[in-house]
Design goal:
Chain lengths: 373, 547
């Protein structure tokens, strides 16, 4: 699918640098991380997100640049012509193991599996075989236990203060509802006066949940809380049914629920850069799906009985009543006494069929939908 | 949209008019925020201080219904100061002279009187828009839901054409579509004047093509549009089939519509919930929701994307397309479709703009933007590249006509209605979501503190809002987001139906009703009962905190 790449308009001047001994090209303004990712290099990151300004806080993406005394964060260092960059070396590996061991000391095993989310930090510790026996730091981060908002939970114990969530809230959603507070090992994610999110500028987009690498920000919804861990759910890619932006989203389905009918227990966004919505969703797209399982859904066809009540009917009877009724009107008053209101909420295919029914079956062009308003 | 959503972040000037983007199109708003962060100039024209005004370079807070004055005055500045693109005008447009002459009398100074926007702001906006190369216009129903909605759109098109901001990335004319599939419903021909793919019913060649394709004779007469149907309900219209719309909650002047529905002989509806319209139905079919069926939605940027079935529908509910096939066959047709993909194939067979698109390709490649005429066509990111599609873009002179209902002694306030972030249309889905019901549980009306004080109204008081057509009771929120003399309310709430109040008279061309302007009065009923009014995080007495 053709999604416009971020850098495409910034520069068309192509320059050359060396990456792990191989000459590669890059566009003015690209970071070393972006160049490396384009060339299939694996550089671990925790605080990086392509939608956010580089922060260089987590130090997991350090690379070695020839002639530079210190290791540099690849996410925050712009590629330069003639630069010689190594993404793997003993020095980098030593640094990375030590760094991840420190993270591990502040990230006890029991929080590593919280909230059903895949934990990027734990995976990284395993991937780079970092030591996990450097002791344990008692968490000193403040939680926000009084926050009764319905969607976003915060588990201070699992937080590593990478600030992806607060930067997302500030830079992408631009409501700045949450912020880093305090210093050192007391650093936490806070709101003004420790208010609940409902009382802040928060718009409940859930982006903080989506960007969190460790599940510290997590979904509170009862459906998600009862669900299996995310990796065990089936993801079905579909298009959001609310406004006209057409966000792509993944319905996370637990096939065993609802007597085998399956149940949507969570909605997640496709990765940034892959679809029009660039990894973003709004409050409705991410959270407003509980209506699917409402007991108020219409479960059977209904017909109006002689005494004016709506009563259950079989599909055969309802279809016959509808056909007789519509044809009766057409016979008594002519086809243009019928009107067909299609729906901008339904699919292209269904709209096609409604207009075909109006035109080809009943011979009227009285067919429209709410685009008139 | 002539442009794509992905181009917004690269724009250098965004002119957003009549669009509460951050609430109605939150993800497009994120792209705009990104452009602003990059350094783009954002101009917002809206009678309310909507969220986007908090990051705008300037907010043109015009009086409701005075858009034509504002747009003509901007055109006046562009013509007078010779900021138009003379080459583009000469090569790609027609009618420039007529518009240039027509806007002569719309001076920014006089516009200031009518619109309530400083002349200097109008000049600045016109200059900024005209002189920035990558400048796009973004609008929604604040432009179209007026008795002069068509004129408003012409006014915007005039600006686009005289500045040549067309046929380039990030520069164009971009109506943001309100529903998931408004674009697709029109593409598929759910229109009284178009067959699928925008082929005119009035065109005998198109009719002959579809008579052959469908093997039957077709009516040569254009049909009634939705607004006409609503007015004819129970009169010339005796029977109706309604799929997936709660007309009683979403159409204007409901009292009259309900009388019409009562007088109808037969009504079939196809729905997921029993809504307000269901009270009038003779037969109701239980339908599957979006997560329970296959198909496609087409978004604002003309991108066709798959809807995939994730779970089975509840009870005996079935996908709308399956019900439609059975209903057509019960009415004597012989339709054979085994999947939504087959329906899509039939749709594109005779609609050349879409011929390159199929479910199979969408499944493989992701979404595709039409026009996409052949299977190897990559889709079209922005329209009018190289040349304007109709040959020459037509500029249309427009003259200001006041809104149909103006404030007077009995109804001294101007009411506009709109959407909020936390609910969607008739809210049949969003009010069943407990979290959203907590965030924004009830309807309210925004009234300027001075207008409130004059009526003895304090924050949270119960008030009656009345117009010539109806009356609703809601709680009042004092807010400087609205102009003095203006009130605003959301239309999502069935217990306080804004559309009992709205005016169903509308635009002479489209018949689109004037949802954005009608005369109203507000009176206090009883004092605040102690329950906190909770309209969502952004609504505050002082309006946007940073404005």
């Amino acid at each position: 699918m053709t999604i416009m790449p971020t850098k495409v308009f910034e520069s068309d001047t192509v320059q050359t640098m060396t990456l792990d001994g191989v000459p590669v090209t890059f566009a003015q303004g690209e970071t070393i991380l972006e160049v490396a990712e384009r060339h299939g290099k694996e550089i671990p990151t925790l605080c990086h997100d392509s939608r956010l300004d580089p922060m260089g806080a987590c130090r997991t993406c350090l690379v070695e640049i020839s002639g530079w005394r210190r290791l540099s964060p690849s996410c925050a260092t712009k590629a330069e012509a003639g630069m010689e960059v190594e993404t793997e070396s003993d020095r980098i590996d030593r640094h990375r193991k030590g760094l991840l061991a420190l993270y591990a000391a502040d990230h006890p095993a029991e929080v590593a599996v919280t909230n059903g989310r895949p934990n990027e930090l734990v995976a990284m510790i395993a991937r780079y075989a970092a030591p996990t026996d450097w002791g344990h730091l008692e968490s000193q981060r403040d939680d926000r236990p009084g926050d009764v908002n319905p969607y976003v939970g915060f588990d201070a114990e699992a937080c590593i203060a990478c600030a992806r969530c607060v930067r997302y809230c500030d830079e992408v959603e631009a409501v700045s509802a949450i912020s880093l507070a305090n210093r050192g090992s007391y650093t936490t994610i806070a709101t003004v006066d420790s208010l609940g999110l409902l009382d802040t500028t928060c718009e409940m987009c859930g982006g903080c949940i989506d960007v969190c690498p460790t599940g510290a920000m997590h979904e509170k919804m009862p459906l998600a809380a009862l669900a299996k861990p995310e990796p065990d759910l089936e993801k079905v890619r579909t298009t959001c049914n609310y406004c006209g932006v057409g966000c792509q989203m993944d319905l996370n389905v637990d096939r065993d629920l609802n007597d085998g009918r399956g149940k949507v227990v969570k909605v997640t966004s496709p990765p940034p850069g892959t679809t029009t919505n660039d990894g973003n969703l709004c409050v409705k797209g991410r959270f407003a799906y509980e209506f699917l399982d409402s007991h108020e859904r219409i479960m059977t066809p209904l017909v109006r009985s002689a005494d004016g009540q709506l009563v259950d009917a079989s599909w055969e009877e309802a279809l016959r009543r509808a056909a007789d009724g519509l044809r009766g009107v057409a016979e008594r008053h002519g086809p243009d006494a019928l009107g067909f209101i299609s729906s901008s909420r339904c699919t292209v295919e269904e709209n096609y069929l409604v207009q075909k029914m109006a035109r080809a079956v009943f011979r009227t062009n009285n067919v429209h939908q709410c685009a008139a308003t | 949209m002539t442009n794509s959503i992905g181009e917004i972040r690269h724009a250098d000037c965004l002119f957003v008019i009549g669009s509460n983007t951050s609430e109605a199109h939150p993800i497009i708003a994120m792209e705009m925020k990104r452009a602003v962060k990059r350094g783009a100039t954002l101009i917002v024209a809206d009678p309310r201080s909507v969220w986007m005004t908090t990051i705008a370079d300037r907010h043109l807070k015009l009086n409701p219904g005075t858009d034509v004055w504002l747009l003509n005055a901007m055109a006046n500045v562009i013509v007078t100061e010779e900021l138009y693109d003379a080459t583009f005008v000469a090569e790609h447009t027609e009618g420039f002279e007529a518009v240039a002459a027509a806007v002569q009398s719309y001076t920014p100074e006089e516009a200031e009187e009518v619109c309530g926007v400083p002349a200097e702001d109008i000049r600045w906006a016109a200059r900024t828009y005209a002189t920035t190369r990558y400048a796009g216009i973004y609008y929604t129903l604040g432009i179209t839901e007026h008795s002069h909605g068509t004129d408003n759109v012409y006014g915007l098109a005039n600006l686009v054409l005289m500045t040549g901001h067309l046929g380039r990335r990030s520069s164009g004319m971009n109506p943001l579509r309100g529903q998931n599939n408004v674009q697709g419903a029109n593409d598929a021909g759910a229109s009284p004047v178009f067959y699928p793919g925008y082929q005119r019913v009035a065109d005998p060649e198109a009719r002959a093509k579809y008579e052959k394709a469908w093997g039957c004779e077709l009516s040569p007469d254009e049909g009634m549009n939705l607004n006409v149907m609503m007015k004819q309900a129970g009169k010339s219209l005796k029977g109706m089939f309604i799929m997936g719309e709660d007309i009683v909650l979403s159409e204007p002047n409901v009292t009259m519509l309900e009388e019409g529905l009562n007088a109808m002989e037969f009504l079939v509806i196809q729905e997921i919930f029993l809504n307000e319209t269901a009270r009038f139905a003779d037969v109701i079919f239980p339908a599957a929701a979006f997560a329970e069926k296959d198909g496609t939605f087409t978004n604002s940027e003309r991108r066709v994307q798959l809807v995939r079935k994730a779970v089975e529908p509840p009870g005996q509910a079935r996908a709308d397309w399956e019900i439609l096939v059975d209903l057509a066959n019960a009415c004597g047709a012989d339709w054979r479709f085994d999947s939504a993909a087959e329906v899509y194939d039939e749709f594109v067979r005779d609609a050349p703009k879409f011929s390159g698109i199929s479910h199979q390709r969408l499944d493989r490649d992701g979404g595709l933007q039409w026009p996409c005429p052949t299977e190897d066509h990559p889709g079209t990111m922005f329209l009018h590249e190289g040349r304007v599609l109709r040959g020459r873009g037509r500029l249309t002179p427009i003259a200001y006509r006041p809104s149909l209902e103006l404030a007077d002694e009995t109804y001294p306030l101007v009411l506009s209605t709109g959407r909020t972030l936390y609910h969607y249309n008739a809210a049949t889905q969003t009010r069943r979501e407990p979290g959203l019901a907590v965030k924004q549980p009830e309807a309210w009306i925004e009234i300027h503190p001075r207008d409130a004080r004059r009526r003895g109204i304090s924050a949270g008081d119960w008030v009656a809002v009345s117009t010539r057509r109806g009356r609703v009771e809601v709680r009042a929120m004092l807010s400087r987001q609205v102009r003095k003399g203006c009130i605003w309310m959301p239309f999502h709430f069935a217990e306080a139906r804004a559309n009992l109040l709205t005016n169903d008279a509308g635009d002479p061309v489209t018949q689109t009703a004037e949802f954005k302007v009608c005369a109203a009065q507000v009176e206090k009923l009883r004092a605040h009962d102690g329950a906190e009014l909770f309209p969502g995080s952004f609504y505050r007495e002082d309006g946007p905190s940073t404005a």
